[in-house]
């Protein structure tokens, strides 16, 4: 009697996981183009783990081209020493003014509005607690190994 019940729970979880993975991220596509200087302005990102948030006051690749995504950009130097970037906007709230905030240990980013907690230090951005179903919108990163990280989409 218990096995069919467990099987139905597992099947429900798998359907939910597949649905969440195949649905498009609710955060709209906005341009992102940042150049981070780890030797000067962004040197806090050199340590592992670390995080920095970027909005209108950051360093766009070109001063004429301001590209900070929908709600800004969160850049994380993960526990695996790689750089990861996410949109700061909470996918559940889907408003540019509601931005996630990294915790002091740079493990999670938490939405102050809905309370959803997203795992960030491994680069996944997946929700681990709260009402959110979609992960944080990811952006691409490239490091030249000499102190510059480019964030783009």
TrEMBL record:
<dbReference type="GO" id="GO:0051537">
    <property type="term" value="F:2 iron, 2 sulfur cluster binding"/>
</dbReference>
<keyword id="KW-0732">Signal</keyword>
<feature type="signal peptide">
    <location>
        <begin position="1"/>
        <end position="20"/>
    </location>
</feature>
<protein>
    <recommendedName>
        <fullName>Rieske domain-containing protein</fullName>
    </recommendedName>
</protein>
<dbReference type="InterPro" id="IPR036922">
    <property type="entry name" value="Rieske_2Fe-2S_sf"/>
</dbReference>
């Amino acid at each position: 009697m218990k096995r069919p019940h467990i099987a139905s729970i597992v099947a429900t979880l798998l359907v939910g996981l597949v649905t969440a993975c195949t649905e498009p991220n609710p955060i709209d596509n906005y341009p992102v183009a940042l150049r981070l200087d780890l030797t000067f302005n962004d040197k806090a990102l050199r340590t592992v783990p670390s995080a920095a948030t970027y909005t209108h006051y950051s360093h766009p690749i070109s001063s004429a081209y301001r590209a900070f995504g929908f709600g800004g950009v969160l850049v994380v130097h993960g526990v695996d020493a790689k750089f990861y970037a996410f949109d700061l906007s909470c996918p559940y709230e889907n408003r540019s003014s509601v931005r996630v905030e990294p915790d002091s240990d740079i493990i999670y980013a938490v939405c102050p509005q809905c309370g959803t907690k997203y795992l960030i230090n491994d680069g996944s951005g997946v929700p681990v607690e709260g009402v959110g179903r979609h992960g944080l919108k990811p952006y691409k990163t490239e490091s030249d190994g000499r102190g510059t990280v480019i964030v783009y989409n």
